[in-house]
Each structure stands twice: as C-alpha cells, then as structure tokens.
Write a structure and sequence with these properties.
Structural class: alpha/beta
Distance between the termini: 66 Å
Strand content: 15-25%
Strand order of the largest sheet: 1-12-2-3-4-5
Oligomer: single chain
C-alpha cells in the first residue's frame, strides 16, 4: 500500500514532532532537572510533641553523591549556602556522601566534601549518618572526615537537644544494607521517656521502628529518580517498592519522611523528581489528630 504525497507529509510531520519531543524530554531528564535544586517545605503535626520544640525547623538532605554529574564541589557550595538560608534549628544528613557508579561522574574524596559541609549552620547542630555507598567505599574514612568538620556522626548513637528544660533526642540508626541493625540498643541509650527523632539512610527499617519514636527521617530511594505519568516510580531500591519512595508517610499513627535526595546513582537522570532540600517544621498535633 502506497501513501499519497499528502499522507507522507503528515507521517513525516508526526515523526518529526515525536522525535523533537523525545529529544526535549531527554535533555530535560539528563541535563536540566538533575541540575535543579528545589527547597520543599513540609509541616508535620505530631501528637504529644513537646511545646518547647513547637515550630522546630529541620533541614533534611540525603544522597549528595558528590562527584555525580551536576554535583560538583561548586554545586555543593551552593547547596550549603541554600541550606544556611533556611535558618534551621537542625540540619540532618541521611547518608550517601560519595559516589562510585554513576555514568559520567568523577569520584570526589570525603575530605573535600567535608571541607564544604563544615560551613553548614544550624541552631542546634548538624548531625549525620552514613549510607550504603559510604560503607561500600570507606565508611570509617568518611566518618572521620565529617567528624573533623564538626558534623556529629550518629552511627547507632544518640544526641540530646535541650530547650527550656525539655529535651528531644536524635537517634542515628546504621544503614540497613551494610551494617548490623541495633535499633533497640540504640534507642535504649535515650534517657527517660523522651521524644525521639530517628535518622537513618534506608527507610525500609520503618516497620521495625517502635512507637516511642515520634518521627523517622530517611533518604536512599532518590524518589525513584524517574516518576513517569500513569506508570509511576518503577525503579525504587526498596523491598517495599513505592510504599516508602518519597515524602511524608503515616502508618499506624507513626510518621516517616523520605527525602528524594540531591545527587544521582547509576544513571545521571531525574524526571519529575528534582533534587530536593527538605525543610520540615514540626508542631504539636491538635486533639484528635494523628
């Protein structure tokens, strides 16, 4: 069957439009969106949250993967400046500082990363845990570099934050994929019946977090990096798939927040999941709320 000249022109026009659209989407996903940096504000109301810590402002970041395309030392400097503009009470970093396996990337040593993160500022301090990529490289070296830069490392350790005679605790829990899990032992270091925020890399430990933890914060998933319309986030490094992929999740009255991270892994692509600095403000829930 032969096409008329008119139909051939129509087919060529359609093919041209499709090709142009594919090229535009590829440029967006591989060049533009991974180079963006958004600040997302989230308000979370938690029952029995201590009034002395109402309006607690937390900056949560994860998966910097410095050395991946678009995340150079210069970009890290911009990230630090943007975080400082948020005037946070706490800056919490949920691991994966380095990268080894992303196309087009170049490894950056932990000492150079720490030299930039040393400039982070927060009223009550900067705290961090390590992720699977950090331990696959050299967790002890990374932990030492960050500690020397004034970042408090909480690998199965806790830290107390005091205000007006009241306390909350930050409990740092080790990475699920690479380290022995010591959830109960770590939480047992908290004194008394205190309010606890758990910081970890991988959100898959959330079902094992006891009710004594008011909020769990994590990263690792990158939000799937790609979120296709109607199809969703098809590749999420979690046994729970999209269940803990991104954002604020409430299960049985327990709160989890998963930040989609900043860098990329394996492929330098993001689509409808831009690099994010998550700014979380916590308040007491009104009576009857979760």
């Amino acid at each position: 069957m032969f096409l008329s000249k008119r139909n051939k022109r129509i087919v060529l026009i359609v093919l041209g439009v499709v090709l142009t659209l594919c090229v535009a989407l590829a440029v967006w996903a591989f060049v533009i969106e991974p180079d963006r940096l958004v600040v997302k504000e989230e308000a979370i109301a938690i029952r029995d949250w201590p009034p002395a810590f109402d309006h607690l402002r937390i900056v949560l970041i994860s998966d910097l993967h410095v050395g991946s395309p678009h995340i150079t030392i210069e970009k890290l400097r911009q990230i630090v400046a943007t975080i400082n503009q948020q005037q946070a009470d706490l800056v919490l970093i949920a691991g994966d500082f380095v990268i080894q396996d992303v196309l087009g990337g170049e490894f950056v040593g932990p000492e150079a990363i720490a030299a930039e993160l040393k400039n982070l500022r927060a009223r009550d301090g900067v705290f961090a845990v390590l992720g699977n990529h950090d331990w696959w490289y050299d967790g002890e070296r990374i932990k030492g570099a960050l500690s020397s830069a004034g970042i408090r490392m909480l690998e199965n350790e806790v830290a107390q934050i005091e205000r007006d005679g009241r306390s909350i605790w930050i409990a740092g829990l080790a990475d699920l994929w690479t380290r022995p899990q010591q959830i109960n032992a770590t939480l047992g270091k908290v004194k008394g019946q205190a309010t606890i925020i758990a910081l970890t890399h991988n959100p898959d430990i959330f079902p094992d977090i006891p009710p004594s933890v008011a909020l769990t914060l994590a990263g690792h998933t990158h939000g799937g990096q790609v979120n296709l319309p109607l199809i969703g986030r098809r590749i999420v490094p979690s046994q729970y798939k999209e269940r803990y992929a991104i954002g604020h999740i409430i299960e049985n009255g327990h709160h989890l927040y998963v930040t989609p991270g900043i860098g990329t892994s394996i492929l330098p692509v993001r689509f409808r999941v831009p690099p994010e600095i998550s700014v979380i403000t916590i308040n007491s829930a009104a009576s009857g709320e979760r």
